[in-house]
Structure formats: structure tokens, C-alpha cells
Amino acid sequence: MTKRTFFLLAFGSLILFSLLAWVITAFFGPAPLPEIIQSGAPLPIQLTFGLVLGVIIGLLAWALISLPFFVATKEFFIDIIGPWRLNWLEILLISCCAGIGEELLFRGAIQPHLGIIWTSVLFVVLHGYITPFNGPLSVYGLFMILAISLLGWVCATYGLYLVIVAHTVIDIILLYALTRAYSPGQEKLPVE
To answer: CA 74 to CA 181: how far, in whole Å?
Structure first.
């Protein structure tokens, strides 16, 4: 995958997932998407706790994947993300697209129908973290199911803004760490 393809997927997921969330909530409820977005705790509380929760989960995910058991999994992610040498603006844009689009769809539209656990499992499986062919990646996937389930509970309890911020911060931390972990002597992939 090229850097350009990655950006197209990020922006495409923001648009497509947001549109799907709007359609699902418009036809199947539990309420229109704008109403779901506006519900919950006051915005400053959601933003603050989203930032804190995102930092905690992002740092835990990086610490976990940095353990010796996960060396091949970490190298796999570094080999995908690292050569692009993403700058801060690129990391922020990709992370915001994923945080907003995925959470609107999974937490705002799907979770009210499937529940927290099944939505979390679906989210992790669709990201490719659970596979019978890679034990360490699947163990990391199990951690992600727990983390995403926590986000699901937090969303149901405090609101959608909180999990959008948390998801965005998790992605910022992981994309930054993967970019920094890349060996500078290796060739950069074509940007297209």
C-alpha cells in the first residue's frame, strides 16, 4: 500500500463511515445521528477524559506491542507505516479521519444494535487483528477487543465525543511511534 492509498482510505473511511452511520441511525435508530452525537456528558468533560483515556490506551498498546513476544507483529506494522515517514500534520489528519468516521459508525450506529462486546469484536476483526495464522497478532487483537470494549462502555456512559477523541489520540500515539521506530537508513516508499 502506498502513502497516497493510505490517505485515500483514511478520507474515504471518514466520508463513507459517516454517511453509513447517518443512514443506519436515520432508518433504524435509536435516534438521528446528530442527536446521538450531542448526547452525553458536557463537552469539556468528554474532551478531557477522551484525551486522558486515549493517552493511556495508546501508551499501553505501544508498550504491549514492544514486548519480545510481539517483535514480528511490531516489525510488520513498522514496515507498513514507517517508510512513509509521516509528519505531524499527516498523522493528525489520518488519526482524525479514523477517529471520527469509525466511531460514528461503530459506536454511534452499530453499537446500539449489536451491543458493546459484539461491536468491539467486529471492529477488531475488520481491522485484521484476529487471525488463526498469527498468534501474537491475535493476542494483540484480544487486547484491542478489551480496549475497544472499554471505549464502547465509555461511549454509552459519557458520550460519543469522548471516544472520538480517545480513538484519535490512540492513533496519533501509535502512528507516531511506528514512524519513529522506522530505521532511517531504509529506503522511503514511493508517495505516488
So the answer is: 9
Supply 112's cell numbers.
446500539
Q: How far apart are the first and last CA of the chain?
A: 11
Q: Write the single-letter amino acid at 86.
A: L
pLDDT tens-place string over residues 41-58: 999 999 999 999 999 999
For 190, phi then psi, to 5°, come to -65, 145
Domain residues of the chain, as ranges? 3-181
- The residue type found at 105 is L
DSSP state of 107: I
Whether omega before 34 lies within 30 degrees of 0, making that bond cis, reads no
CB 77 within 8 A of CB 65: yes
pLDDT of residue 191: 47
Query: Which residue has cell 489528519?
Result: 93
* Alpha-carbon span 128 to 119, nearest angstrom: 14
Inform me whether the pLDDT recorded for 178 exceeds 50: yes
The answer to whether residue 186 scores a pLDDT higher than 80 is no
Q: Of all helices (H) and strands (E), which one includes residue 28? A: helix 3-28
88 CB neighbour count, 10 Å cutoff: 11
- Say how far apart CA 182 and CA 192 lie, in whole Å: 20
Grid cell 516489525 in the structure block, residue: 75
